[in-house]
Amino acid sequence: MKSLIDQIRKATMSDELDPSTIINVELIDIIFALHEKFEDIDKVSLWLNTENPHLGYIKPSKLILLGRGHKVLQFIRSVEDSE
């Protein structure tokens, strides 16, 4: 699955990307990272839709919709690095 993510990233690397494409690529990265951690899509969905104190008590899904998916991904990766 990781190679699929890499292929999507490579295919979407362009100066002509519209913001919705960038959000979709970030969302794929986020879901993939969370699925690796939780190994359960229901837990991924719950995490995305629960206010998170480390993200200013905002639901990660809302941050993604606001174009701040990179902040969510940054937080996920920082947790992974500390484990």
Main attributes?
83 residues, mainly alpha, 70% helix, 0% strand, globular
Summarize the SSE layout with pairings:
Blueprint: H1 2-11, H2 19-38, H3 41-48, H4 60-65, H5 69-82
Helix pairs in contact: 1-2, 2-5
User: What composes the largest sheet?
Assistant: none
Question: What general outline do the C-alpha atoms trace?
Answer: globular
Question: What is the oligomer described by this structure?
Answer: single chain
SS elements, strand count: 0
Please provide a brief summary of the model.
This protein has five helices and no strands. With 83 residues, the chain is mainly alpha-helical.
Describe this structure in words.
It is a single chain. The chain has one domain (2-82). 70% of the residues lie in helices and 0% in strands. The chain is built from five helices and no strands. Helix 1 (2-11) packs antiparallel against helix 2 and helix 2 runs parallel beside helix 5.
